[in-house]
């Protein structure tokens, strides 16, 4: 009876036959850097990024206002930041198209100036912000464990605070995690330096064995429990329909899959950077990082910021195309984004992070505003139609 791992990459072995002169294929003759896989567009996974585009844009505008003193800002000041926020339309047009986020009022910027239009968060947005706090509170242990895992995978168990702040949105960390969350867990974290000065770091104080198991390892343990036999930890390989790998690449991947899994939490300082074992570990780190991210995807430039901490090679991005059955590298929006294939079914995310409740609540807020606006436009169009009908009736009366 074939093992689960053999089933997983049986597709890769299709039509693979050793020659008579060399019945045992030597898979180490080709260096990793010479193994190329042609990038192929995946429309469904690209669509998954496109679906969230409107929500991300609205979130940027909300963040801009929330960062202001008193969470209010003159409309004309916000207009000056339109390009930075990535708004393709004027702010007033954006507000009209997305009702429910803000309310407007008039006030003076200075005592002797004329009143100008200000915008502030709406009552519905305030309700959402309270709900956001509740979700963060309920999932505090999960957020703390994510932070521990990021530190535990790094070579020195330490990461730059500036880099962590830069990736907080990708991993779902609250804005105030350094101020309100880190100090609650002195048994795990030590903050060195002053955040914001460029020389501050977050250190791991103690190793937590509970967190030192990857998604791959936990999955193998669960499958072993259900099947009653030991299942080796390994990656799920799922090539998209119609995708073709050259024979030498199929051979290399088959052999590479048979290598022992290298946990991203293991010390690999002794491994050669160009070895297949290091490739196995690198793929494992990327798999774990993407698994910990909110949407199981992270822009490649953001991952590149951690090359030194996680021992990535200078050409690390080639891993995503070389292992196209595990990852997909989207070029949507002109930005390379690494995605975890197994986390998606078509364009739908099936492996959902509990913190995505926040995004779901925000989406409900936006969609309610869009629905109300659509109804208003429908009524206005109906009224215009009635008015045109009345005018036509009057014209007919005159003619009669």
TrEMBL record:
GO terms for molecular function: RNA binding. Coiled coil: none annotated. Residues 41-370 form the PORR domain. InterPro entries: PORR_domain, PORR_fam. PANTHER family: PROTEIN WHAT'S THIS FACTOR 1 HOMOLOG, CHLOROPLASTIC, UBIQUITIN CARBOXYL-TERMINAL HYDROLASE FAMILY PROTEIN. This is PORR domain-containing protein.
């Amino acid at each position: 009876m074939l093992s689960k791992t053999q089933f997983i990459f049986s597709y890769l072995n299709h039509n693979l036959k050793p020659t008579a002169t060399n019945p045992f294929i030597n898979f180490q003759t080709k260096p990793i850097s010479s193994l190329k896989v042609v990038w192929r567009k995946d429309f469904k996974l690209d669509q998954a990024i496109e679906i969230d585009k409107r929500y991300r844009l609205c979130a940027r505008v909300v963040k801009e206002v929330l960062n202001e003193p008193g969470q209010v800002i003159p409309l004309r000041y916000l207009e000056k930041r339109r390009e930075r926020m990535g708004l393709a339309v004027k702010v007033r047009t954006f507000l009209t198209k997305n009702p429910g986020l803000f309310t407007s009022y008039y006030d003076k910027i200075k005592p002797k100036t004329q009143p100008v239009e200000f915008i502030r968060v709406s009552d519905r947005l305030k309700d959402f912000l309270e709900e956001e706090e509740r979700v963060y509170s309920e999932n505090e242990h999960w957020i703390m464990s994510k932070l521990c895992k990021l530190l535990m995978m790094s070579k020195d168990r330490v990461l730059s605070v500036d880099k962590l702040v830069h990736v907080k949105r990708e991993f779902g960390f609250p804005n105030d995690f350094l101020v309100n969350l880190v100090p609650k867990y002195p048994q795990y974290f030590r903050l060195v330096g002053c955040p914001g000065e460029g020389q501050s770091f977050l250190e791991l104080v103690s190793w937590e064995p509970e967190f030192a198991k990857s998604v791959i390892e936990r999955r193998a343990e669960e499958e072993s429990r259900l099947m009653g036999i030991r299942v080796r930890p390994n990656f799920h390989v799922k090539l998209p329909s119609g995708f073709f790998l050259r024979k030498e690449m199929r051979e290399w991947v088959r052999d590479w899959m048979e290598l022992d899994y290298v946990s991203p939490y293991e010390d690999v300082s002794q491994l050669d950077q160009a070895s297949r074992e290091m490739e196995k570990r690198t793929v494992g780190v990327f798999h774990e990082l993407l698994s910990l991210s909110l949407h199981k995807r992270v822009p490649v430039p953001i991952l590149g910021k951690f090359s030194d901490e996680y021992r990535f090679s200078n050409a690390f991005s080639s891993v995503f195309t070389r292992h196209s059955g595990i990852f997909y590298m989207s070029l949507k929006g002109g930005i390379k984004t690494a995605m975890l294939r197994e986390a998606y079914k078509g364009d739908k995310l099936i492996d959902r992070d509990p913190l995505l409740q926040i995004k779901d609540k925000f989406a409900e807020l936006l969609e309610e505003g869009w629905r109300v606006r659509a109804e208003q436009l429908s009524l206005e169009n109906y009224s215009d139609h009635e008015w045109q009908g009345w005018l036509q009736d009057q014209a007919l009366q005159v003619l009669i």
